[in-house]
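Hi P.,

Sorry for the delay on this. The queue was packed all week, but I finally got your sequence through. Input first:
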Amino acid sequence: MPTRLILASSSPFRKQLLERLRLDFDCISPDVDESILEGETAVPYVRRLAREKALAIARQHPDAVVIGSDQCALLDGEILGKPGNHENAMRQLRAAQGRSVMFHTAVCVICLEGGIELLDEVPFEVEFRRLRGEQLDHYLRMEEPYQCAGSFKAEDYGITLFSALRGDDPTALIGLPLISLIPMLERAGIEVV
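Then the structure:
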């Protein structure tokens, strides 16, 4: 069984999460188009991207176990991606005020030589507090979460935006659902405990 483990991501948050498992791994950023396909809904979208990211790196390293992950936020049936800038982030946070936003995080483990392909999706619900515009602006200027789906970093100061969190795996909200990932890695021959 292969022993090399690769995280197909350039996300420092996913890297920090995977480091919790105390495994040796490399990070390689996949070159994957993250555009939403016409008619694609949230769960198929994140499942497709998690698989495409893992597969892109697995093709370069067929003997390695590769982890891909992707996340999106869903509000009123609309996928909220990474805002990219302050104005878009303000729009996303204003729209979420006093409401619940569902986050969908997919994780995929692939080893081409081992014939392994495992895929899961983990939902996590966030209920936002009602905050004034200047409070939202202050938050965004403090953390600049412009590359984060939903415009916040739950693992940091973003926790101040919420009134409730609901889900089985809080690491899914940060971007890599470790509770789902652990048995996937074990099935791929990577001992975690």
